[in-house]
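Practice problem: predict the structure.
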Amino acid sequence: MAVSPEQEHPTKAFGWAARDSSGVLSPFKFSRRATGKNDVTFKVLYCGICHTDLSMLKNEWGISMYPLLPGHEIVGQVTEVGINVEKFKVGDSVGVGYLVGSCQSCDNCGNNAENYCPEMIFTSGAKYHDGSTTYGGYSNIMVADEHFVVRIPDNLPLDGAAPLLCAGVTTYSPLRYFGLDKPGMHVGVVGAGGLGHVAVKFAKAMGVKVTVISTSPNKKKEAIENLGADSFLVSRDNGQMQAAMGTMDGIIDTVSAVHPLLPLLGLLKTNGKLVLVGVPAKPLELPVVPLISGRKIVAGSNIGGLKETQEMIDFAGKHNITANIELIPIDYVNTAMERLIKADVRYRFVIDIANTLKSSA
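Answer:
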């Protein structure tokens, strides 16, 4: 007989979860495991909302398991540590991102790339090593192996830091890995949303010249005056795109909608790199001739390993980088999901877990 989520583990917990692919969230009682010898337990203070949460809630990828309690941009304060834990102590500000487990024995894990481990375990909607379901950060407490926990710098506000654990490292990682972090380089950022706006902030902090590429002319002022971009291109304006041909060393493409790649490839210099971090629902058309004629690269990148995630959050602390957020109470979460579908957010929703979850549960 199946054990109920509330009885599965010894520590009582609560949050908001969806019971089916309608994606509608409501209060949910469940349980967390007791703090193991390598575990860090923390009180969740804030949790960001990612578009991936929405896709999982709606079972858009056909892999969702219900009840599903999302959230993988989780920050809070440590309340207990296991006897073998060395990196954290009670009272520390910490965070958990997209992963809570991996095999720890493959080449990827050995090279600090747990995010590419074939056996990586997602923070919500997956099965943990012990066979239990993983539940995310739309909840009051979190328990995770210390290897998958990062320290949040003291100077960063926790609400604004939360989205960096996904959106931040998703854009920081390709800038670093593909060598698009050198001062004086010119990098384009496609899309000025949840991912794009932090990509601009990280690239500028690295000393890179940044051009935001968008279909919306009305985002120009925001991109330049508030985010710090150097220039702005309207991708539907053929004149603007033609004038910028061959000027960029690389492009970080954050858009999840289906869109043409050919105009973007034209913006790249010889040896330029177009890196996709958005996840369109349908395959994109990839023209080969521009790749061959300019020795250009189209690549993909997915979050980052734990070492790189800590590096990213430390870099953010050094340069005072946070996400631009709209802080919401937990009982607004279903409305927030509806707004997210319409891209009606600047630029990231963050749930005020500590101050609103208890009264709603």
